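To illustrate the input format used throughout this study, we show a single complete record. The first block contains the structure-token representation of the backbone; no residue identities are included at this stage. The design step must infer an amino acid for every position from geometry alone.
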């Protein structure tokens, strides 16, 4: 692992460019279609509608949801595009997922989809893994009224690294391996799983720590 981290650092010794979330992504708020309108919750032409329960039950990379809604619920707007992130920015903060199909989500989530300028520069699986860094930031940058919510002005300015694509793919490959190992240990001794989880979190944070390239 140390060798891999040194190899990654060798590819960008001067640092990597960082951009604000607002530069890289189009942000859209999720919403809940009216429960009183049956046309929104029935029919055959539906979209998956993601909630926190989906992440808790099925993990962080999702292609289907527990509940679906009719396309009639789109309010004349397009569905959120496939290969977007959903980030929990209110109520239960500190979770995210990569959604690989067109979808909607509830209002607890903010949807992040790549702007055209960055579509060839960012591997969304890399963005998914960097989402764990963003989760930690979100939990430290909240405002409280009737419920907790992320400071969205600061959220839009959050600095997101864009290393070379080869570096992104190497990081994804390493973290995919760790994820597979964690999944295989789910039925093992609890202490072993906890130790592996801490090791995974440590190396994930190390791999995703970059120095910002100075202009």
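Output of the design step:
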């Amino acid at each position: 692992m140390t060798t891999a981290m040194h190899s990654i650092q060798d590819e960008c010794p001067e640092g990597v460019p960082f951009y604000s979330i607002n530069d890289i992504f189009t942000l859209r708020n999720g919403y809940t279609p009216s429960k009183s309108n049956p046309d929104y919750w029935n029919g055959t032409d539906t979209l998956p509608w993601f909630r926190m329960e989906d992440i808790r039950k099925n993990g962080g990379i999702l292609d289907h949801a527990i509940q679906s809604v009719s396309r009639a619920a789109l309010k004349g707007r397009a569905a959120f595009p496939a290969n977007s992130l959903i980030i929990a920015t209110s109520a239960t903060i500190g979770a995210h997922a990569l959604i690989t199909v067109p979808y909607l989500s509830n209002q607890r989530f903010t949807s992040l989809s790549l702007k055209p300028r960055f579509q060839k520069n960012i591997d969304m699986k890399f963005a998914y893994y960097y989402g764990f860094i963003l989760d930690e930031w979100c939990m430290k940058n909240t405002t409280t009224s009737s419920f907790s919510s992320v400071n969205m002005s600061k959220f839009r300015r959050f600095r997101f690294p864009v290393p070379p694509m080869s570096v992104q793919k190497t990081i994804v490959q390493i973290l995919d391996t760790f994820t597979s190992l964690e999944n295989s240990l789910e039925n093992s001794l609890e202490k072993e799983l906890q130790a592996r989880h801490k090791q995974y979190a440590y190396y994930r944070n190390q791999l995703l720590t970059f120095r910002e390239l100075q202009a």
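Structural context for interpreting the output: The longest strand covers residues 109-114. Helices lie at 2-11, 21-24, 52-58, 124-140, 152-157, 165-184, 190-207.
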